[in-house]
Amino acid sequence: MEQSENSVSFSLKGDAETLKKFPFIFELVITYTVVENSLTVTYKVINEDPKIMLFSIGGHPAFKVPLVRETNYEDYYLEFDSKEMAGRWPISPDGLIESIPTPLLEHTDRISLTRDLFYQDALVFKHLSSHQVSLKSDKTSHGFTFDFTSFPYLGIWAAKNADFVCIEPWYGIADTVNSNQQLPEKEGIQQLEAGQTFEAVWSVQLF
């Protein structure tokens, strides 16, 4: 672990134990940096293996909702920075991604938060036009903007009737129901050449 006045980095290095489940030698460094009212999280994946490394990576940050007293969960909404025409990709009972999306965002930039929104598991999106999504309410000026620029997949989720919402940027996605089970051909899998470094960043800014 490395730490400075406003940041901390955690490192995970491949070893004999990780090789039992993940057949590559690697180092993963995650850095959290706080500057004023913003948090930036940086993922750095280093391939220390002599062969191409296959991997996926993503975040699972959760945010308390409601943000302020005298507001309710249903007073809040998520607003993308572009109007979207995108369906959600349903998750099967086995935790796999279905082959056909269901309509959700139809020329809109807004998702209203409701308790039943996540009763059928997470909202999974692929290749949105937006780079940011904000949590807002008409009953308070406080909220946040979440930047997921360059992440090809986005999940939005909450446990049933829970007082939070997760905004999850992903470089990778769960397997599909019609997968051929070949990891190099898996949708969203990342391939990193020997000795190379992959880096991805997401951030959240409070207002």
Distance between the termini: 30 Å
**Helices and strands, in N-to-C order?**
EEHEEEEEEEEEEEEEE
User: pLDDT average, as an integer?
Assistant: 97
CATH topology of the largest domain: Beta-galactosidase, Chain A, domain 5
Instruction: Write down how many β-strands occur, each being a DSSP E stretch of 2 or more residues.
Output: 16
Q: By helix and strand content, what is the structural category? A: mainly beta
In quaternary terms, these chains amount to single chain
- What is the helix tally? 1
Shape verdict? globular
Give the strand order, joined by hyphens, for the main sheet: 1-2-3-4-16-12-11-8-9
Question: Would you mind describing this structure in some detail?
Answer:
By secondary structure, this protein is mainly β. It has two domains: 1-56 and 189-207; 59-178, Beta-galactosidase, Chain A, domain 5 (Distorted Sandwich). The chain contains one helix and 16 strands. The protein has one helix at residues 16-19, and strands spanning 2-3, 7-13, 26-35, 38-47, 53-55, 57-58, 62-64, 76-88, 102-112, 123-126, 132-137, 140-147, 153-157, 164-171, 190-192, 197-206. The strands form three sheets. Strands 1-2-3-4-16-12-11-8-9 form a nine-stranded antiparallel sheet, with no helix packed on it. The longest helix has 4 residues, at 16-19.
